[in-house]
Specification:
Length: 556
C-alpha cells in the first residue's frame, strides 16, 4: 500500500475535508505568489521599455496598493499554514489517544512480550512525527509542485529559450539529488526507528536501576548501553537531516551557472542592454522561486521516506462492554495452561460461589498469578472451560465482567498522584463517603493523620515514599472502593506481619459475609476460617515482614 493511501486512511472524514480545503487555500496563495511575480516583472518591463504605454495609475498610488496587496497575500498564506499545523496537531492528538486505547486493549501475552519503549514511541512520538513529517509533508509537496509548475509555465510564456535553459539546468540535478537522497534515507530509517526505541528502553532501565547502579557499581554498564544505542540514533538521524541541506546548495550552484551562461550568450547579441537585464532578472526570479520549491519537494519526500514507519495501523475502536449482572458463581472445568514445555496446571477443576473464600496455595512461580489472570479474563485458558453464573465465558465477553471484579496484583500499581486518585482511579471521587470508609478500613486514614496529611497526599513514582505494607493497603483500598462481586488477590500478605495479616483476614471475612467471592493466592501458610483450599503444588513458608497497624471492616 502506498504511503499516500495509508496516510489518507489514517484521517477521518472531517479531517480529510479540512486537509484538502487548507491545501487548496495554500496552493491558491502559491498561485498568487506567481501572479505577483509576473505583475512585478511586467511593471519593471513597462518602466524600462521606451515608448511603452503609461501605467494605469500614478506610481504614488500604484506602488503602495501593490505593496499592501502583497502584505495581505502573505498574511493569508500565514493563516492557511497556521491552520494546517493546527490540523496536524489535532490529528496527532486523536491518533495518540487511539494508539493508547489499542495498547490498553492489547492481549495480555502481547502486552507482556512487548517492551514498554515500543508502546511509548507508538503512543507518544509516532503520531506527532506522522503529523509533522508525513501529513504536512504531503501538503508541502503538493503546494510546491504547483508553484514550480506555474513558475516554469510563466517563464515559458515569457521567453521559450529562457524556459529551455531553466529546465536543462535544474531538472537533471534535481532528479539525481532526489534518487541519491532517497537511497541513502532508506538505508538509515530502520536504524533511526530501532536505535531510538533501544535508547529509550535503556534510559528507562538506567532510571529504574538507580539503586542497583550504585550498589552493584553498574552505572557505567547502564550508561554504556544507552550511549551505544543513542550514538547509532543520533548519527543516523542527523545524517538524514544533513542530507536535506544538500539540494539547496547544489541547485543554487547550478542556477548561478545557468545565469552566467545566459549572460555569456546574451552578450553575443547586438541587442544587449535593457533586454539583457530583463532576461537576467526573469531568470533569477524564476530560478529563486523554482529552486526553493524543488528543495522543499526533495526534503519533504526524504522526510516521508524517513518517517514512514510512523504510519502505524490504527487499532479498532474498542467496544464499550455491556456490564454483566452480578456474579454469583465461577466454575473452572478442566482448564490447563503451559509456557512452552513447562506445564503450570493441568485439568484444574473448582467452583466458588457468592459468600465463599477460596485460598489457592503453591510455591512461587507455579502458575498462581497466571490462574488469576485467567479468572479475571486477562488471559484465556489453553484448554478447558470457565463459566460465570453457569454460562460459558468467552474471550469476547470477558470484558463485560470486569466492572464486577477487583484485581490486586502482587506488585502494587501506583500513580505518581494523590492517595485519593490512586484509590479511586478517578479525577475526583464519585463516592466520597465510600472513599472515607475504605481509607478507615485499611488503616490508611490513621496513617495519613499521623503524618499531618490526608488523602490529598502525593505519592512519588512507584510509591517511593511508602513502605511495602502501605502500598498494599492502597491496592486493597482500591479494590474495596469498587465494591465488586469478586476479589482476586495475588500474594496480598507479602509485606505484612502477623498482626496486619490478621486484620486483613477479618476484613476479607466481612466482605465474604456480604456475599462477595474472595479468591486469594499465596505461597504462605494462611489460616482463613471457612475458606476452601486448593494446592497447585507443595506449599512453602515465608517469614513475616515488618509490623503495620490493623485493618478494619469497611464502614467499621
Amino acid at each position: 500500500m502506498s504511503l499516500l493511501l495509508r496516510t489518507w486512511q489514517l484521517l477521518e472524514f472531517r479531517e480529510r475535508r479540512r486537509y484538502v480545503l487548507l491545501t487548496l487555500a495554500d496552493s491558491a496563495i502559491q498561485v498568487l505568489d506567481v501572479l505577483f511575480l509576473a505583475a512585478l516583472l511586467a511593471l519593471v518591463q513597462r518602466l524600462l521599455k521606451v515608448g511603452a504605454p503609461g501605467l494605469p495609475l500614478q506610481p504614488a498610488v500604484l506602488f503602495p496598493l501593490f505593496f499592501f496587496a502583497f502584505v495581505a497575500k502573505n498574511a493569508a498564506g500565514y493563516a492557511a499554514l497556521r491552520a494546517l499545523h493546527r490540523l496536524g496537531g489535532t490529528v496527532a492528538q486523536r491518533i495518540a489517544l487511539r494508539q493508547l486505547e489499542g495498547c490498553q486493549a492489547a492481549a495480555q501475552d502481547l502486552f507482556v512480550a512487548t517492551d514498554s519503549s515500543v508502546f511509548i514511541r507508538k503512543v507518544n512520538f509516532h503520531p506527532l512525527e506522522f503529523a509533522h513529517y508525513v501529513l504536512l509533508g504531503y501538503q508541502q509537496i503538493a503546494a510546491q509542485l504547483l508553484l514550480v509548475a506555474l513558475s516554469v509555465t510563466a517563464v515559458f510564456l515569457f521567453d521559450a529559450a529562457l524556459f529551455a535553459l531553466l529546465v536543462a539546468m535544474l531538472v537533471p540535478p534535481a532528479f539525481l539529488l532526489y534518487r541519491g537522497i532517497k537511497k541513502r534515507i532508506d538505508s538509515r530509517k530502520a536504524v533511526v526507528q530501532t536505535s531510538n526505541e533501544d535508547s529509550l528502553r535503556y534510559l528507562l532501565d538506567a532510571l529504574k536501576g538507580h539503586a542497583e547502579g550504585k550498589i552493584y557499581g553498574a552505572r557505567s554498564f547502564f550508561r554504556t548501553r544507552f550511549a551505544a544505542s543513542r550514538e547509532r540514533f543520533t548519527k543516523a538521524y542527523f545524517e538524514m537531516m544533513g542530507l536535506q541541506q544538500l539540494p539547496a546548495r547544489a541547485l543554487e550552484t547550478v542556477a548561478v551557472l545557468g545565469l552566467l551562461l545566459l549572460l555569456g550568450f546574451s552578450l553575443q547579441s547586438p541587442d544587449a542592454g535593457a533586454y539583457l537585464l530583463l532576461r537576467a532578472g526573469a531568470f533569477l526570479a524564476a530560478a529563486y522561486k523554482v529552486i526553493p520549491g524543488l528543495v522543499k519537494i526533495i526534503a519533504a519526500h526524504s522526510q516521508l521516506r524517513a518517517w514512514s514507519f510512523t504510519l502505524d495501523t490504527l487499532p479498532e475502536e474498542a467496544l464499550v462492554p455491556k456490564t454483566s449482572t452480578n456474579i454469583h458463581s465461577i466454575e473452572v472445568e478442566e482448564i490447563s495452561f503451559s509456557y512452552g514445555k513447562q506445564t503450570l496446571f493441568r485439568e484444574l477443576n473448582f467452583t466458588v460461589n457468592a459468600g465463599e473464600v477460596l485460598l489457592i496455595g503453591s510455591p512461587s512461580g507455579s502458575g498462581k498469578t497466571t490462574l488469576l489472570e485467567i479468572l479475571s479474563g486477562l488471559r484465556e485458558p489453553q484448554a478447558g472451560c470457565l463459566r460465570v453464573n453457569g454460562k460459558s465465558r468467552r474471550a469476547e465477553t470477558a470484558a463485560s465482567y470486569w466492572p464486577r471484579m477487583a484485581y490486586v496484583r502482587q506488585e502494587s500499581f501506583l500513580l505518581h498522584d494523590t492517595v485519593a486518585r490512586n484509590v479511586c482511579l478517578e479525577e475526583s471521587a464519585s463516592m466520597p463517603e465510600r472513599l472515607a470508609a475504605v481509607l478507615r478500613a485499611t488503616g490508611l486514614s490513621p496513617m495519613l493523620a499521623s503524618e499531618g496529611t490526608d488523602s490529598g497526599k502525593i505519592l512519588l513514582e512507584d510509591g517511593g515514599n511508602l513502605s511495602g505494607g502501605q502500598r498494599q493497603r492502597i491496592a486493597l483500598a482500591r479494590a474495596l472502593y469498587r465494591n465488586p462481586d469478586v476479589y482476586l488477590l495475588d500474594e496480598p500478605f507479602n509485606e505484612l506481619d502477623a498482626e496486619a495479616v490478621a486484620g486483613m483476614i477479618r476484613l476479607l471475612e466481612a466482605e465474604a459475609a456480604k456475599g462477595k467471592i474472595i479468591i486469594l493466592v499465596t505461597h504462605q501458610p494462611v489460616h482463613l476460617p471457612g475458606a476452601r483450599h486448593i494446592h497447585l503444588h507443595e506449599r512453602q513458608t515465608q517469614h513475616p515482614r515488618a509490623a503495620h497497624t490493623g485493618l478494619r471492616s469497611v464502614g467499621g
